[in-house]
Structures are given as C-alpha cells and as structure tokens.
Amino acid sequence: MATICAEDFNLGQNCSNCNTGSYDNCTPKDELRFSFSENSIVPCRDFTCDDLLNGQNVYITLNVWVWDNNDNKDYCTVYVEIQDNEADLCDDDNGVGSLVYGFVKDLNENSMKDVDLELKSSEFTYNESTEENGKYVFNEVEPVSYNIISLLH
Q: How far apart are CA 44 and CA 50, in angstroms?
C-alpha cells in the first residue's frame, strides 16, 4: 500500500518540518545514510492495510537515523499519518472505535513524560500516560464527546 523511506525526510530547505540540518565533520552531506534502524541500514519501510488500525488511517512514530561513513549515528523522531483515502484499498473496520491522540508540553514547549491522562465522557473513561516525547494515544475509544483531564499526583 505505501513505502516510506527515511531519506524522504531529508527534503531540503523548502520543507519547514523536515531534516535540513544533518551533517558530519568527516562525511560529505550527500554520503550520509538514512535508516529506520539504530542497528543496521533499513532505508525504507513498507506499510500495508494490516498496519491501519481501522482500515482507514494510522498515526505512527518513527525514529529516522542518520549514519556517517564511520557508522556514527544519531536520530530524530518523526510523526506520520498513513491514510487509505480516495483509492480505498483497505477494508474499513467499523467495529474499531475512534482514535484520540496529542502531545503534552509545558509552557516552554518541553515534552512532558509520564503524565497520567483520563479521557472521560458521561458514559466512558479511558486512562493513558504520555510517552518520552509527550505523546499520548487513546486507541479504539467509542465515538462520543470527551474531556481530557490531567491526573495530578
């Protein structure tokens, strides 16, 4: 259905949220290698209908690693939404609920890890904690109106 390549995130200065600054003091920029793995060069990842939570879309977090010619490496985290839109190649699974996700940051835009959150409606309550990057995801929730509450300790 879709192939995503790590190098695709190196789109140059015309892309405001893409890699524009990967460099190395010994490896020319055009020889840097991009990978989805810390352990080996995995330049691309294939995604199929099985990867879509509900046959319609999925939000994923990927680490994009940049390797130099001496196998030194570092990474950045990217967030990707994969959709089965107009072509409608995947069977929709209407039995799966909705997806609610976002990021928790402090007033200085710093990500907040391990924040306990409650997704609450008059009928349903779901609990989740934020990841290292402040991201939270409530999967397969009933499609009703909710409030998100931070549970203070």
A: 17
Tell me how far the alpha carbon of residue 105 is from its chain's centroid: 16
φ/ψ of 51, rounded to 5, equals: -80, -15
Distance CA(5)–CA(11), nearest Å, equals 12
pTM of structure = 0.57
H helix runs in the chain, sequence order: none
Phi-psi region for residue 106, left (φ > 0), alpha (ψ -120 to 50) or beta? Answer: beta
| Tens digit of each residue's pLDDT (9 = 90 or more) over 107-145 | 888 889 999 999 999 989 999 999 888 888 888 788 788
Using an 8 Å Cβ cutoff, are 112 and 96 in contact?
no
Cβ neighbours, 10 Å, residue 27? 17
DSSP, collapsed to helix, strand or coil, labels residue 107 as coil
Closest to 101 measured CA to CA, from 117, 124, 123: 117
Q: Within 13 A of 43's CA, how many CA atoms are on the CB side?
A: 5
